[in-house]
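Q&A log
Question type: sequence-to-structure
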Amino acid sequence: MKEVSYQICTNEEELVDAIISDNDVIYIAHKLGNKISNIKNTGKIAWGVLIGGVLVAVTAIISSKKFGKDKALIASSIATIPSVGIAIIYIGLPSTISLIQILIYAYKKNDGINGAKDIVHILRNNYYIAEKDKEKLTLKKTADEKVKEVKITEIKQKEEE
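Response status: OK
Response body:
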């Protein structure tokens, strides 16, 4: 029987490490847990818009650090403000800042911006909220099986037959 691996996280960097380590259970401290809960409870369409905007912002922030402080900083600010604004509307300012920090730490540890995006998708799709209380948020890894979405019309058609 496989031993369950777990990690306790109090900040975004520890959360990225826990996801990269592929832990089965992740315990997240209350303040960070509320932010992660907001990120995970975003609908599919909103998530697409949200992650696109935040990725633009993170790419702009990282490129401004690489290329200097003059024109790159101005360009990154122009790109960052509207794209982060979308995220703030959907999940709020604290959760948006936390998501940006997660992406930046993941960028440093997991092969650039595509690796960072993959880490956030793993957090969103491969873990579910098992427990949420006033002290912590508990994430557990989902089973490796895929769940097929079924439309309500498909269910009604099978009942009629």
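Response note: The first strand starts at residue 6 and ends at 9.
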